[in-house]
Specification:
Number of strands: 0
Radius of gyration: 35 Å
Structural class: mainly alpha
Low-confidence stretches: none
Largest sheet: none
Length: 125
């Protein structure tokens, strides 16, 4: 259950990071596509370039965070598969053990019933 919860949380974090990365990339793209005013000085262009560079860096960081979140989600999914496999092994072992115990109990009951029957035959025989 813990592995399943962690996997679901990691998947949600990956989705959130993907959305944040997409929003950051869209913000940079929209800003980069906007045309500057007619009368733009070199200082204004330098500021615009710095601002666009900062937006691009933010988009790149968000994309890297999304990639890391996807990797973590995949790691958690793999851990969930392992946990489910281990749980299944334990269940199979438990079921086999229960069947062995039931068979032993039935054998003991048969032996006891045979002994009672043998005593009855000896008494009446």
């Amino acid at each position: 259950e813990l592995a399943q919860t962690e996997s679901a949380a990691a998947t949600r974090r990956a989705q959130d990071a993907e959305q944040a990365a997409q929003r950051a990339a869209d913000t940079w793209s929209e800003a980069a596509c906007a045309s500057p005013e007619e009368r733009t000085s070199s200082v204004d262009l330098a500021e615009l370039s710095a601002w666009l560079g900062a937006l691009r860096q933010r988009a790149d960081r968000a994309a890297a965070q999304a990639a890391a979140a996807r990797a973590e989600a995949e790691r958690q999914r793999a851990a969930l598969v392992v946990a489910r496999s281990e749980l299944r092994k334990i269940e199979v072992w438990r079921d086999g053990l229960a069947a062995t115990v039931r068979a032993a109990a039935m054998r003991l009951e048969r032996v006891a019933a045979d002994e009672v029957a043998a005593r009855t035959v000896r008494r009446h025989g």
